[in-house]
Every structure is written in C-alpha cells, then in structure tokens.
Amino acid sequence: MATNTANPLGEEFAFDIGGPVAKYWVAVLRVITGWWFFHAGVTKIIENGFNFAAGPGYLKGMTGTALGPLPVWMGNNLAWLIKPGVPLFETLIGLGILFGVLTRLAAFGGAFFMTLFWVGNAGYGHGLVTGDFMGLLLMITMAALAAGRYYGGDAIIEQTRLVEQHPKLKYLLG
Amino acid sequence: MKDTIITTIDKAAMALGGGLILLGVVGLGIVEILAGPPYGAAPTTNDAGEVIATPMVDANLRVFLVVAGLVVLLAWQVYRMVATASGEDATQRVEMTAD
Q1: Is A124 close to B88, i.e. CB distance below 8 A?
Q2: Least Cα separation, residue A155 to chain B (angstroms)
C-alpha cells in the first residue's frame, strides 16, 4: 500500500489537514479530550470502585426524551452492566484517546456516552448547543480526523502487518 | 482498495447525516429566533415554576433530528468498514531466474 509520507492524513479516509500546526493541535486536542474522560472514569473508580450506583437511576430519569424508551429500558435492565461499565469504559475510552490507541473505537464510545449526557442533562435553556453537545462533537472530530495518527499509538499500530492485511481495522484505529 | 469518498452512497450519507444535524441545530434554530421568545430550546418559567412560554419547535424533535443524523453517519462508517476489501495479497509468488 502506498504511503504518503509527507501527509499521513492524505491517505485513506481522513480529513486532509497536513500542516504541522494542524497535526500539533489535533494531538493536543486529543490528549485533552482523553484526559477529560480518563479523569471522569478513574475518579469514579477511586471513590466507589466499579459500582457507579447513580448510573441506572440517571437513565431511568430520562423519560420523555428524543431517545424514546431506550434509556429507561437500559436503566431498568442493564444496571448490572452500567454500574461497573460507566467508570470502566470512561477510563478505557479516556486512555485510548489520550494515547491515541484504537482512537476511533474509543471516540465512538465517547460519542455514545456524550449523546446520553446531552439528551439526559437537557439544559436547553440557552439553545440546543450545550457543553455536552460540544463534547459530543469533539468525540466525532477525534474519529473524523483520525486523531490517533498524530503522535499517537495508532500511527505505529497502523504500520503493522496485521493492519495492512486487514485494512478494516483502520476504522477502529486512526 | 483506494479508500476515497467517491461513491454515491458516500455523498448521500454525508448529505443526509450532516443535513439532519444542521437542520436540527441551525435550521430550526433560525426558526426559533424568527418565532420570537423564548430564544432557547426549553420552555421558560416564572418564579413559581409555571411555564410562561414554550419554544415553537419541540426540543425533542430537534434532538431527534441530530441523533438521527449521527446514526446515519455511524451506519455509513459501518458500511464502509464492511465494504473495505481485505488487503491480503493472495498472489502466489515463485522465484524465477532470469533468462
């Protein structure tokens, strides 16, 4: 597979922003975004272990939202997963984005979390664009720009024979 | 496989996904401004907690449009991932001497 060494973003599916300042800033943004989620997850683990009891209740309270009965159903039926899953996945998502490993997969997880927060917190008094929505957009931006390719682990992982043999993996890496 | 955005499906998914998101946030946001107060997307209440004004467009509808746009973009990426051909070079190579 041909590689454009001058512009790693120029190959494959990625937004073509090859300048040094853009790479630098995407990397900075990625580390901050990763730290944001890592901090949220790891502090929950420190305080309560893998037992985030508020999670199911939060979802059960999401009645009458645009997501329909899905969050309430999750709160009622997936408490066994949500209690340990929220701190665990927030931490893993944070680490993945922070170090740029499996960045797109981690960003998808982050976008899922932020969609629930955006809809659940529903502080639309000043309009639809809230801090949670900006966080959601940030996660999508990490995936769209393949942020892990800039000073991140995915830059190395994508050079391996495994990824070259299975280019589908670039939709989880990058 | 050269993984560039050229197919009709790619263009349609980008137009639909981005269009739904922009419609929910910006398009109906403009409608809200033109419709007058409240300019936010939530009902306004007085000190007693009574609703005194509601937005013209239900916030749930706008949120639904945005989420639908995100789902379209996710489905598009899953489609692209599935459609990506394996990079395994299955060609048998044998060493040959020059004539």
Answers
A1: no
A2: 18
In this predicted structure, what is the pLDDT of residue B1?
Answer: 39
pTM of the model: 0.83
The residue in chain B having the minimum alpha-carbon distance to the alpha carbon of residue A164 is B87
> Would you say the C-alpha torsion A41, A46, A48, A51 has a positive or negative sign?
positive
Confirm if B42 and A124 have CB atoms less than 8 A apart: yes
Token couple for A56: 């199911």
Question: Distance (Å, rounded) from C-alpha B21 to C-alpha A136?
Answer: 12
Closest CA to A173 of B84, B61, B69: B84
φ/ψ (deg, to 5) at A51: -145, 75
- Of A128, A135, A80, A95, residue with least CA distance to A111: A135
The whole-angstrom distance between B7's CA and the closest CA on chain A is 13
Residue B51, strand partner residues: B45
Between the CA of residue A131 and those of A10, A74, A94, A145, what are the distances in Å?
31, 24, 18, 21
Compute the distance between CA of residue A168 and CA of residue B88 in angstroms, rounded to an integer. Answer: 11
**pLDDT band for position A172 (cuts 50, 70, 90):** very high
Rg of chain B taking only CA atoms, in angstroms: 25
| Contacts A124 to B, Cβ<8 Å | 40-42, 59
Give B44's pLDDT tier (boundaries 50, 70, 90). confident
Residue (of B41, B62, B37, B32) closest to B52 by Cα position:
B37
Placement of tokens 């190395």 in the chain: A156
Most B CBs within 10 A among A1, A124, A139, hence the mutation to make, goes to A124
Contact with chain B for residue A140, Cβ under 8 A? yes
**Angular region, A155: left φ>0, alpha ψ -120 to 50, beta rest:** alpha
